Model the fold of this input.
Amino acid sequence: MEHERDSSSEDSGQWRSAGERIESLLDASSAGGVVARERAEQLVREVVDLYGAGLERVIGVLRATGNHAVLDELATDDLVASLLLVHGLHPHDVETRVRTALDSVRPYLGSHGGDVELIGVADTVVRLRLTGSCKTCPSSSVTLELAVKDAVQAAAPETTDIEVVGEPAAPKGLISAESLMARVHSVSQVSGSWVAVPDLAELGPGEVGGFAVGGLSILAARVGDDLYAYRDRCPACLNSLAGAVLARRAGGVAGDAILRCPICHAHYDIRSAGAGLDDSSEHLDPLPVLIKDGVLSIAVPAAEAAG
Done:
């Protein structure tokens, strides 16, 4: 089983870098002059069109025979879904794909006490409404932005913009939807990046582990099937949380996931954006964990990594 997983991971890496390899080969063909480059590009187009025509026939047969379950399963495979999108053959419409993408980030939004609602998609513009509140660090606006924007763009690359529908003015001390997504219209303005951390998959239920991600020390924990990641620093004593474990608070309900600082013994609720239980003004700095390109990844704000 381990061998199969490693083999699958290697295959995934091969096709994900195929575009770069093709571009490199096209650049190399330029050494033979303009005509050689044009012929190489035409060859690529012919091959792409050929495979596209084949995929179109496969999808047509599945639809004609009513194999919708197979179509849905194909749509969940990253490689197949990406090829179907390239050729305009994806079985799900853009709104369905956007809804699925938002469902994938909803657990993280929920850990911040918030949620996202799809208003609709019109003229390649996705209209969203952020609900609830965000009660974490200032960097959370960047990480939320990365999570929502990247999920939507990956599922529906034909969309060109995201518009956030305004909510009533947020109470003092909360981050409004407008400020949360103020930079979502430009990729260059997103101050952060996703870093693949496949080792996160090794964490078992109830386990806590430390990781170095993008120059930043991260503390990650698994509660049931959910993974949570935080900057490895206790806001109470400013020390590393290395050695911390998850426990149930005195009188707490089953399923409690409380992290106790091994130095100052401060307590934080892992599943509620790292909210401080001893001092409500203190909280851990959360970072989103999502599956990006088939690999567990953490979004690290540039400012945090630089610090």
User: Anything to note?
Assistant: Residues 65 and 183 are 45 Å apart (CA to CA).
